[in-house]
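Predict the holo structure. Ligand: uracil.
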Amino acid sequence: MMETMFELLPDKNCSLCPRLKSFIDENREKFPDKYNAPVPSFGPANAPLLIVGLAPGLRGANFSGRPFTGDYAGDLLYATLLKFGFAKGTYEARIDDGLEMIGTRITNAVKCVPPQNKPTGPEINTCRTFLEQEIKDMQTRSLKIIMSLGLVSHNAVIKATGNKLSAFKFTHGKTHDLGDKLILIDCYHCSRYNTNTRRLTIDMFEDVFKTIKDML
Ligand code: URA
């Protein structure tokens, strides 16, 4: 049975970030049959690994209701998770594809879809309370490693764990000791832009998962 922590997630009609709430309202009008709400994390709460992305993509997680589900970044992420045994089943880019996470949970630094894929500083700060609670809760269970996909996620995790940004520079592939027996590993975001420009190659992405596998 998958453990859930619904109390740690924003309400479906969360209005803490007025700009994000109006964007969701707009999209509810435009796409009434889609999810259009804060996207909950996916995977067991007692997982040793937490993967933190940026924010739901408009036509991906925001439409499907599951992080990274339905866009290019998700195609790459879930294929890699399946390859390394962090998930089982088949990824079919929909919430009811039966995919199961193994010892891994996925969340986003910001739970609501932002216009142009860019959350503002205040939105990231506001939503961090949910990330903070989620990390704390998972630490009371089995959390050992957080994988940050990109700089926004890295910064959110550093702050959410009470650490100082100046002491932890985002570096692809690097592990950081966050204290309290928690390790952060940085990875460039698996976006189409990053793979097209070869900032992140498939080998580089897989190497990060190999490092995580060795550490767990
Ligand atoms: N989808 C997500 O849920 N998060 C991202 O960071 C990118 C795509």
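The chain has one domain: 35-215. The beta strands are 49-53, 87-88, 100-101, 104-108, 145-149, 175-179, 182-187.
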